[in-house]
Amino acid sequence: MSDINTFLKMTKEKDIKYVDFRFTNLRGGWHHITYAINAIDDQLLKTGLMFDGSSVPGWKAIYESDMILLPDLSTMNIDPFAAQNTLNIICDVIEPSTNQPYICDPRFVAKSAEAYVKRSGFADTVYVGPEAEFFIFDDVRFESSAQRQMASFHSDETPSQNGRKMDEGNHGYRPDSKGAYSITNPSDASHDIRAEMLSVMGDMGLDIEKHHHEVSPAQHELGFKYTSLLKSADWLQIYKYVVRNVASSYGKTATFMPKPMKGEAGSGMHVHQSLWKNGQPLFSGNAYAGLSEMALFYIGGVIKHGRALNAFTNSTTNSYKRLVPGYEAPVLLSYSARNRSASCRIPYSSNAKGKRVEMRFPDGLSNPYLAFAAILMAGLDGIKNKIHPGQALDVNLYELPPQQLQQIPAVCTSLREALAALKADQQFLLEGNVFSKELINSYIQLKLEECQTYDTTPHPVEFKMYYSL
To answer: How many CB atoms neighbour CB 156 within 10 A?
Structure first.
C-alpha cells in the first residue's frame, strides 16, 4: 500500500470521507491535520501539505513557521474510532526552504539511524520489539493551580475496593498488591478490553501477538511482533492511540505514566533489539548466554552511554519514581540472562534468530523514534569501539555487599540528571548525522522547562511532611 493508485483504490472501496495526516513532536505526542477527501489530489500526496511548525514545542520560531507534511503512503490505515470514514497516514516533516527532511523531526532520526546501520557495514537491518505497559483507571482527577495541588484516581480492580459497599454488591475478585501478573478471570476484569485493543491494532495493520495482566492491579501489557526500527516506532504510536481510545470507549482512562500508583510496580517499556545482515542474525554466538561477541559489545555501548540514554528512554520527571530499587526496577547498568533487575537482559531462545538484547529501563512515555534510535547508536558505538560490558551479574543485585554495589554504574535518579548526562555525552548520537546538535539542544531545553515546572510546584506530600512543623 505504498503508491497513489493504492490510496485511490482504498479511499473508493472504503468510502473514505476524510484523511488524517499525523506527525510526532519531540516529546513523542501525535499531532494531526484532517483533510476532506475532495481536497486531496495527486499533487498533495506527492509534495505534501503545509502546516505551522512554530506551534509545535521545540521546533520553529514564529518567523520561520511554514513547514511541510509529506505523507508516507505505506502507513495508511483506517481509523476505527472516527465517526466519519477516515484514513490515517503518518507523515515525514520537510523543511520548505531546502525541500529536505527537517532535522528535528523524530521520524527522520529513526530513518537516519536505519540508514547509518547499513553504511556502518556492521549490519543491514535492526529489529526492535517494544513491550509498553500501562494502567487502566475508572476515574482520574488532577489539578495544579496556585491554590490546589492534587491527584486522585480510582480503579474497581484495586484491593482498596474490597471493603467498599456497592449497590450492585461487591464481587470481591481483585488481585493482591503486586500479585496480579497473568491472573485469570474474573479477577482479571480487563481481559475483554485488552483483547479488543489487540484486535483493533491488528485491524490497523500491526502484527499482533499477545496480551496479559501485569504485576500491579489495573496494570496491563499488549504485544506486537518485532519489526524494523522505523515501523516499530510507527506501530508504537498506533499502540498508544488504540489503548487510550478503546479504554475511553469503555468509559475508562488509560495512562502510560511510569509511576502513577505509590507502592506498586511502575510501568516500563522493555525494548528488544537485534542486528541482522543478509538475512542472518548477528547476535547469536558462543559467548555468554549464546550471544556473539558483537552482541556483548552492543551491550557494552548501551551500558557506557546508559545515563545519557535516560534522557530519551526515561524522558519525564515521573520516570524516576519508577527507577528505584525494590520494584523489579532495572536501575543498575549491568547485564544478565536471568536477572530482571539488570538493565540489559538476554531473553532465553533456543533459536539463533531469537537472540536479542532486552533493554529494561525505558518507559512508555518516551518518544519511540528517538529512544529506539538512541539505544541503537549506543550499541553501535560499543561495536565500533569494542566496549566489553564486563562480567554478567546473575545474582540478586540488591543483596550484594554495599562496597560491591557501589562499583556497578546506575541509571540517573532524575530527569535533570539525565539531561546533564546527555549534554556531556552526545558524540555517539551525532555519528553519521543521525541526531543533530540542533535537535539535542532543542530537546534538552524543552525537557528543562518540564524540570523547572516540577521543581517550582509544591507537592501534596510536602504539606503532609512540613505543614504543621
So the answer is: 18
Residues with Cβ < 8 Å from 452, sequence gap 6 or more?
Answer: none
CB atoms within 10 A of CB 160: 12
H/E element holding 4? helix 4-13
Q: What residues are labeled active site?
A: 52, 131, 133, 214, 221, 270, 340, 358, 360
Quick check: 331 and 343 in contact, CB under 8 A?
A: yes
Does the global pTM surpass 0.70?
yes
Alpha carbon distance, N-terminus to C-terminus of the chain: 66
Which residue's C-alpha cell is 529501563?
361
Beta bridge partners of 390: none
30-36 and 253-255 beta bridge pairing: unpaired
Distance, CA of 335 to CA of 302 (rounded, Å): 10
Task: Give the pLDDT confidence of 64-103 residue by residue, as tens digits.
Answer: 678 999 999 999 999 999 999 999 999 999 999 899 999 9
Place of cell 490515517: 88
- Residue 435 near residue 426, CB atoms below 8 Å: yes
